[in-house]
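Support reply, case 0932

Customer input (verbatim):
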Amino acid sequence: MSVPDLCAPSTARAVARRFGISPRRELGQSFLVDREVRDAIAATAAPAEEVLEIGPGLGALTQGLLEREVRVVGVELDPRCVAALGLLRSRYPGLKVVEADILQVVPAQLGLTAPTVLGNLPYRITGALLPWILGWDPPPTVCHLLVQREVARRLAAVQGDWSLATLVLRVMAEVTVEFDVAPTSFWPSPQVHSSLITVRPRREVDPQLSSELAGLARPMFQARRKQLHHGLARSLAITPGQAILLLRSIEIDPVRRPGSLDLDEWRRLISVVRQRGD
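Our regenerated output:
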């Protein structure tokens, strides 16, 4: 049985009609219909023998992986897309599709351990999905993810120019931008550009550090334009004077801004805060 070329826009529309799929904005459904981009993404992930794909959709990227003899476990929320992926399942025994919400699934439930993760992420869930994935035990080996270009740039920013979300992520992983993808590579075309990012979990991560850091840093980033000691005083419920002394004790200038601290400085700050609680 032949398998249609799911990268062809006309084929994607025909498959969607056949299975009653109208791309839903609330699910962030923009299906990849660009062979060159598809092959570039597949090549990035293809060294892996097995991939967990988030939201395969109509299956264009899935098809690219399967053609490279990569085994794919796809987690798809839309039952209509699950049905459409049957076109690939009938041809490729290396494909398994699970109808589920990825935010409620862990790899062990799928028979996987530390998988390579691949996905064209709905923009609305990127912020929730990355911490969820990196919180898996064990975490993925590596993630290759299509996200909004502005988000990609923010997550991969150099130290000293981070948001709170970037800080919490970078404690757990390294992030690099691979390449950008134009809106015309998708059907329907989103209103923004996308980028492929590679997220590599750090080998040694204090399991409590991320949550402690988020709790400490959130009030500080809410006042990110103010000097560091003001936000720290608010976060720890101490006086600004006490915050100044605490910061100076770990050689951090209290007049800096929260976004200027690097990972080592945040770790030193968490360490001294922990000592205060002992």
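We compared this against your earlier run and they match. Two observations from our side: DSSP finds twelve helices and nine strands in the chain. Residues 263-277 form the longest helix (15 residues). Please reopen the case if you see a mismatch on your end.
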